[in-house]
Amino acid sequence: MGKSLTQQCPIVLVLPVEATCQWWVRPEAKVNRAIYPFLCNFTLFSSSIYIHKTMTVSFQYFSLQSFPGRLSISYCRSSGPGGQNVNKVNTKAEVRFHLATADWISEDVRQKMATMYKNRISKSGELIVTSEVSRYQMRNLAACLQKIREMIIEATEMPRTESKETVEMIRSRVEKMNRERLRQKKIRSSVKQSRHVDFD
């Protein structure tokens, strides 16, 4: 008997139950349920899906099969590696979900994702992620979930505030680059002028 979807590709959704302090849950095979302090809203992690909000260590764990309506997963023929296999087996994975109603992501992060990834959102408002990097369905599914993880992390990250020293250093470097660019431009211009022949 074949393995179930969860056994082939363990995917865990962690939903916050209580909200008191900021923590980061990292449910992985060897460090399952390890708690790490981290400042963010919602995050995904490699082979597992987990969500962060201001929370304590009380969580509820769900497998991918526990919320089939949240993620729509489909497979189709791939143009990636695999030789003749790609012409016979539906290995390309596609994961989509309706971004506006994805209550497992905070509203501010959803709004930011809608702006950052507008080219990935369909007319019906679904965020679509695909992968065909592998000849195996489960690896492509894992790659899709990894992409979603990275997208949520990127939308979660707060913009860095640079120190005055860093700002000054960047400004001086930009000015230096501009001076060098203008100098090279003048050199090229003088070379072009020297090529002109005056027949008068």
UniProtKB/TrEMBL annotation:
InterPro entries: Mito_Release_Factor_mL62, Pep_chain_release_fac_I. Signal peptide: none annotated. It is found in: Mitochondrion. This is Large ribosomal subunit protein mL62. GO terms for cellular component: mitochondrial inner membrane; mitochondrial large ribosomal subunit. Belongs to the prokaryotic/mitochondrial release factor family. Mitochondrion-specific ribosomal protein mL62 subfamily. GO terms for molecular function: peptidyl-tRNA hydrolase activity; translation release factor activity, codon nonspecific. Pfam families: RF-1 (PF00472). Residues 70-195 form the Prokaryotic-type class I peptide chain release factors domain. Coiled coil: none annotated. Its EC number is 3.1.1.29. GO terms for biological process: mitochondrial translational termination. Keywords: Hydrolase, Mitochondrion, Protein biosynthesis, Ribonucleoprotein, Ribosomal protein, Transit peptide.
